[in-house]
Design brief:
The complex is a heterotetramer of chains A (82), B (226), C (238) and D (230).
Chain B lengths: L1 H21 L1 H20 L7 H21 L4 H4 L3 H6 L5 H31 L7 H27 L7 H25 L8 H26 L2
Helix pairs in contact in B: 1-6, 2-3, 2-6, 3-6, 3-7, 3-8, 6-7, 6-9, 7-8, 7-9, 8-9
Chain C lengths: L3 E12 L2 E12 L3 E5 L6 H8 L7 E6 L2 E2 L11 E5 L10 H11 L5 H12 L14 H13 L5 E5 L7 H13 L6 E6 L2 H7 L2 E6 L2 E7 L6 H14 L1
Parallel strand pairs in C: 3-8, 3-9, 6-7, 7-8
Antiparallel strand pairs in C: 1-2, 1-4, 4-5, 9-10
Helix pairs in contact in C: 3-4, 4-5
Chain D lengths: L1 H30 L13 H28 L2 H32 L8 H20 L5 H26 L21 H43 L1
Classes of the chains: A mainly alpha (82), B mainly alpha (226), C alpha/beta (238), D mainly alpha (230).
């Protein structure tokens, strides 16, 4: 039982990490794609990319954090009930 | 209906007589107002800012913080000897209790707001001129909106274990509209602009006060319910 | 059979997971005086609060003279007078002002006669101009009683009325309370003091953990034996 | 058991939503074209706007459920209000953090007292008050009523806050979707945005149900501890 619950826990964590990495990779890919583009964008620094990256990471962190916190509270409550 | 009004009058009378005899809240608010005006005066670098430009904002801040001081104690009056329970077990509709308490608080805060205006006019050398009436109207409507929300939330915060510390956290976000309309119209009136120019703001202040009163009268029963 | 004045049907009150009053049923006629005993935390005050309309029942309801009362009902409060060990008085108002204030809340018009008459009854006529904070605790309690009786309620609820009174003040209060047994009113008193509670009661109940664990009449209560009985009931149930 | 079903449903919806979020991330990074004026930073918009929509919806729902609770006194309504308020705070936090990240590039400043951002901030604080009130009463029933009053007053105050903060000059981009003469976004951006809106809504609903199941279980636990206590 404990093993099972741990597995859910691990699965969730892995999922969160995967999404996080995906976001990072995506930004990196976009960066490479975006670099050769001329004019307006070329004059900008890389800073906007970091802001986009941070924003998308925040979304994942907060949503994932909320989900994990609910799961944790549920488990604590179940432990108490048992 | 006649009983309803007489009940409201009885509670207002009781609150004001108690205040007159103890002078607890009015003294605290008045002293706070004058001391705040003194501190504000020293907090302004007069070489870079003209005092009359910032006076409106400071007047309103004094009013909000000073008002909080008085309004927060509304229900402590009742809690010595459990008088609130006496009030709640008498045949007074809950909204009448709320309206009476709010109006009694309004009387106090209005006196304080006129005092605040006078003190700032004196310390900051404001020339109010012909706009005195308009400014007092604006402060009056602002006070009404403030006590309408303040009384309701004072009842809430009194019922919690956090007490008065909770009051500003609850009311400040809600007071933003009142402060915006109040400060802009007071500022313009102090600058000597005609009343027509701020009429829209004054209307909004009035609407805010009326809406807050109505909402408070509607919801107060759920707050004092036991 | 006397006419029923105060009834409670399946009255219950919960504070979140805590059950203060659990399924209490009552029916009291004119002239009856019920004393509810119980240890601290048995839910006595919550019961009284619900009977007086100060507290919303979680379940069940209260009837006065056969009329079912809603919590928000203003009318019901005209028929109930409450005396608690806390007086509901304002220290900075005079004796008269306190009564006048409550009189106006009850919509009474003949206060000029009523107030002196009530003060006479509780023996405070000479203190009418005194501020309440200048009075002794015993006098305050008598004033509270005058306040509770001001509007001539049919139902009188007493919440530990003797708390903090010295013997002589308690004696005066006892005298006034005895005067309430005029055959028309119904009285409910909650207390944990066995001696004071038994003196005036016609009916007795013991409340433990929110429920009425035992009910009886004055006749069922055999003096000394009641104290042992009380402890047995309380320990048996809690 | 209803609670268990709610929990399974919530988990399933959340997983669907998270998969959708991965898809939205893919869309906004690889598929949608870069906006010409703002450049790459405009992509924040695809999470910022849906989060704002979700948090407003959550707060609105919380206020509505609170009003219904005061009226009907059904504990389930209070639980719904609580869960929605928590979600509103989470998504509100997303709005309040992603907004400045975008603003720093687009406007050159992290924070401006721009009407919609101000409104979100104030709502966020109102609902922080909601939780503080709720958790600081001895009688939980009282806390529920107090919190409901806070939520309702907060909702009633929104029009006033909105109108008053508009007095400050608006820096916020004009609405691009909900306009009388149809959306003005290029088709691919609009698709991305609408997909994201749907995904955020699904995530919220899923987590809301999941959270609601937790409250349901807690209520059951309270009931059980009560029957063993007496």
């Amino acid at each position: 039982m404990i093993l099972f619950r741990n597995r859910v826990w691990v699965a969730r964590t892995v999922l969160a990490c995967a999404l996080f990495l995906l976001a990072t990779a995506a930004v990196g890919a976009q960066e490479i794609q975006g670099l050769p583009r001329p004019t307006a964008l070329a004059s900008q620094s890389l800073r906007p990319y970091w802001h986009v990256f941070a924003a998308y990471a925040i979304v994942i962190t907060l949503i994932g954090g909320w989900a994990i916190s609910i799961g944790r509270r549920l488990r604590d409550l179940e432990d108490r009930l048992r | 209906m006649r009983t309803y009004i007489d009940q409201i009058r009885a509670i207002i009378w009781k609150d004001l007589v108690l205040e007159l005899r103890t002078r607890e809240r009015i003294a605290a608010m008045g002293a706070f107002a004058v001391l705040a005006a003194i501190l504000f005066n020293f907090s302004i670098d007069t070489t870079s800012t003209r005092p009359e430009d910032v006076a409106a904002g400071l007047i309103w801040m004094t009013l909000v913080f000073g008002g909080l001081l008085g309004v927060g104690r509304t229900f402590y009056l009742e809690s010595q000897d459990n008088a609130l329970l006496g009030l709640l077990t008498s045949p007074v509709p809950k909204d009448a209790i709320y309206l009476a308490k709010t109006l009694a608080n309004f009387a106090l805060l209005f006196i304080v707001s006129v005092l605040v205006l006078g003190v700032f006019a004196l310390f900051f050398g404001l020339d109010l001129g012909a706009n005195v009436g308009g400014i007092i109207l604006v402060l009056g409507l602002g006070s009404l909106g403030f006590v309408a929300l303040g009384t309701l939330f004072a009842a809430i915060s009194t019922g919690t274990t956090m007490g008065e510390t909770l009051l500003p956290i609850l009311v400040f976000p809600l007071l933003v509209p009142m402060v915006i309309y109040g400060v802009t119209s007071t500022g313009r009136l102090i600058a000597g602009r005609p009343f027509d120019e701020v009429e829209g703001n004054v209307r909004m202040l009035g609407a805010f006060a009326v809406a807050a009163l109505a909402a408070g009268a509607m919801l107060f029963r759920y707050v004092v319910e036991d | 059979m006397t006419r029923l004045v105060l009834e409670a049907k399946g009255l219950a009150r919960e504070y979140g997971p805590v059950v203060a009053v659990d399924d209490v049923n009552l029916s009291l006629g004119e002239g009856e005086f019920l004393t509810v005993f119980g240890p601290n935390g048995a839910g006595k005050s919550s019961l009284l609060g619900m009977l007086g309309g100060a507290m919303r029942p979680t379940r069940g309801h209260v009837l006065i003279r056969g009329q079912r009362l809603a919590y928000s009902d203003v009318e019901w409060r005209h028929q109930v007078g409450i005396l608690s060990h806390r007086g509901f008085l304002y220290g900075q108002l005079t004796v008269e002002e306190n009564l006048r204030f409550y009189g106006r809340l009850f919509g009474l018009t003949d206060l000029d006669q009523r107030i002196p008459e009530r003060l006479e009854r509780v023996g405070l006529a000479d203190r009418i101009r005194f501020q309440v904070r200048q009075l002794s605790h015993g006098m305050r309690q008598r004033l509270s009683l005058a306040r509770a009786l001001l509007h001539d309620p049919d139902v009188i609820l007493l919440d530990e009325p003797y708390t903090g009174l010295d013997p002589s003040a308690a004696g005066v209060l006892r005298g006034v309370l005895a005067g309430l047994r005029d055959g028309r009113r119904t009285v409910v008193m909650v207390t944990h003091n066995l001696k004071e509670g038994l003196e005036l009661a016609t009916r007795v109940a013991i409340q433990v953990s929110g429920r009425f664990a035992w009910e009886g009449t004055q006749a069922d209560v055999g003096g000394e034996a009641f104290e042992r009985h009380y402890h047995r009931v309380v320990e048996g149930r809690s | 058991m209803a609670t268990a079903g709610m929990r399974r449903g919530g988990t399933a919806l959340t997983l669907v939503g998270l998969a959708g979020l991965v898809f939205v991330y893919w869309m906004s990074f690889f598929w949608v074209s870069t906006e010409i004026n703002q450049g790459v930073v405009q992509r924040i918009f695809y999470v910022h706007v849906p989060a704002a929509w979700t948090s407003f919806m959550a707060f609105g729902f919380s206020a509505l459920a609170s009003a219904m609770y005061l009226w009907l006194r059904d504990d389930r309504l209070d639980r719904a209000a609580l869960c929605a308020a928590e979600g509103g705070l989470v998504f509100g936090t997303i709005v309040l953090t992603t907004g400045p990240l975008w603003g720093k590039i687009a406007w050159g400043t992290y924070w401006t007292w721009e009407p919609r951002l101000t409104l979100t901030l104030l709502l966020w604080f109102i609902f922080v008050g909601y939780f503080m009130v709720r958790n600081s009463t001895e009688d939980p029933e009282k806390g529920k009523r107090f919190a409901a009053v806070v939520a309702i007053i907060g909702a009633l105050d929104i029009p006033f806050i909105h109108m008053s903060v508009i007095w400050f000059r608006s820096l916020h981009p004009e609405p691009v979707v909900a306009k009388p003469d149809g959306p003005s976004l290029p088709a691919d951006m609009l698709t991305t945005l609408l997909t994201s809106l749907a995904v955020f809504t699904v995530i919220f609903l899923g987590l809301f149900l999941y959270r609601y199941a937790l409250e349901g279980l807690r209520a059951e636990a309270d009931l059980r501890s009560r029957s063993t206590a007496t």
